[in-house]
Design a protein that fits this description.
The chain is of the alpha+beta class. It has four helices and 18 strands.
């Protein structure tokens, strides 16, 4: 199997193109190949597939073998891949990528000398109703809601960007004990399909730090949908403007929640690391 190792701000993927549909053993392959000690090493295995709704479809299998509905960093990697591998017209700096959780997403490419230097993705409208995120709370917006874990009370805001997110504000996201609380919150009964957990600190109206524990992958260097969810949550909580830089461990993403169309837009880089073949 031919593959390309790619990453978006350190959130890394094994990207495979050429299949007509998701292989039946994709889950087992993801667990084996994403292992950082016995495999290639990645946060997920991404397949670029044909689509009847968009230019291409992507399917993302997490490193634990579960499937993710959506992934902002993977969307950027897929867009860069299909452009630089001649799978779309070189003059077309706009394309669409179909996702399982957020439908067909519009993508704009910044290109210099045939190389994609940045990708802007229309991530769609955030889903805020509690049961649709989903959470166990039946409210129009789950805002600053109490959540107890091991006798410690957190307060979270729930946002879905095609996949579920739980945003929690802490004094120092950079130094927060992600590995202790992330896995416990991911599987909390409050979240019937598990959840991605973002710990955030708003430093200014247009800047915030965020660290993430991703459902099915654990701690990652970046999460595009998580950055979008954090910006939406920060606006709802009156902590930020509708446009801000979200600083992750792997780098920065620029996020905008547009008031006119209610869509969230994410801009950031994607990089190809190497190509290879695995049996």
């Amino acid at each position: 199997m031919n593959f390309t190792k790619m990453h978006g701000l350190g959130n890394d993927f094994i990207v495979v193109a050429g299949e007509q549909q998701l292989p039946p053993d994709a889950s087992e392959l993801a667990v084996r190949l994403c292992s950082r000690f016995f495999g290639i090493g990645a946060d997920g295995l991404v397949y670029i597939l044909p689509s009847d709704k968009a230019d291409y479809k992507m399917r993302i299998i997490n490193s634990d073998g579960s499937e993710s509905e959506q992934c902002g960093n993977a969307v950027r990697c897929v867009a860069k891949y299909v452009y630089e591998h001649g799978m779309v017209d070189a003059s077309a700096h706009e394309l669409t990528i179909e996702t399982i959780g957020a439908g067909a997403q519009k993508v704009q490419l910044a290109v210099e000398n045939g190389i994609v230097t940045a990708v802007r993705v229309d991530m769609g409208a955030p889903i805020l109703r509690g049961t649709e995120v989903p959470t166990a709370v039946d409210q129009e917006v789950v805002l600053n809601y109490p959540l107890e874990v091991d006798g410690v009370e957190f307060r979270f805001t729930a946002v879905s960007m095609g996949n579920p997110h739980c945003v929690i504000y802490v004094d120092d996201a950079v130094q927060f004990d992600l590995n202790t609380w992330g896995p416990k919150l991911e599987v909390h009964p409050m979240f019937p399909r598990r959840v991605n957990v973002e710990f955030a600190t708003v430093k200014a109206k247009n800047y915030m730090d965020m660290r993430v524990w991703e459902r099915g992958a654990g701690p990652t260097l970046a999460c595009g949908t998580g950055a979008c969810a954090t910006l939406v949550s920060s606006v709802l909580n009156g902590l930020s403007d509708r446009t801000a830089t979200v600083s992750l461990k792997g780098g920065d993403l620029f996020i905008e929640w547009n008031e006119e169309d209610n869509h969230v837009y994410m801009t950031g880089p994607a990089e190809q690391v190497y190509e290879g073949t695995v049996s």
